[in-house]
Amino acid sequence: MGDIVGEEDKAEMVVMEMQRKLQQSLVPNSNEYTVIDYNSWGSSSTKHSTWQLILDEAGFKNATESFQADKYGQTPLSKEMLIALDPDVMFLPSWVYGEVDAAEKFRDQVIDDPALQNLKAIQQGNVFQMPEALRVPIVNISLILSFT
């Protein structure tokens, strides 16, 4: 953005301050968790998404980072592939278009699916709904952290 408005130096300072705040707020992660985000239309974010930036900063390994991505950084993810990847942690959406409780229904559908019962994430209770506001591009993380 700094290039566009002719304020490269100011933009660089903003980015550096955001990185500083982010580093101050991170909790060191000594475990290498394999993480996946799984949405109701059966896709997951690859390394070509802003989700990857969040996982990198948190020290997590994205189970689908090497997958072929569409223009949005997403890759189709079949139930069979999800089982093969067997993530330690799953993030599901906290909002799904349609019914008011569609996200909760999707979460219950995933957790209660007989085919998914052997996933480490489900067995260990590591299935979380990620608020959509936190899945924003990395530049907004500093804004989020400023409220903490």
UniProtKB/TrEMBL annotation:
<protein>
    <submittedName>
        <fullName>Periplasmic hemin-binding protein</fullName>
    </submittedName>
</protein>
<keyword id="KW-0410">Iron transport</keyword>
<comment type="similarity">
    <text>Belongs to the bacterial solute-binding protein 8 family.</text>
</comment>
<dbReference type="InterPro" id="IPR002491">
    <property type="entry name" value="ABC_transptr_periplasmic_BD"/>
</dbReference>
<keyword id="KW-0813">Transport</keyword>
<keyword id="KW-0406">Ion transport</keyword>
<dbReference type="GO" id="GO:1901678">
    <property type="term" value="P:iron coordination entity transport"/>
</dbReference>
<keyword id="KW-0732">Signal</keyword>
<dbReference type="Pfam" id="PF01497">
    <property type="entry name" value="Peripla_BP_2"/>
</dbReference>
<dbReference type="GO" id="GO:0030288">
    <property type="term" value="C:outer membrane-bounded periplasmic space"/>
</dbReference>
<feature type="domain" description="Fe/B12 periplasmic-binding">
    <location>
        <begin position="1"/>
        <end position="148"/>
    </location>
</feature>
<dbReference type="InterPro" id="IPR051313">
    <property type="entry name" value="Bact_iron-sidero_bind"/>
</dbReference>
<keyword id="KW-0408">Iron</keyword>
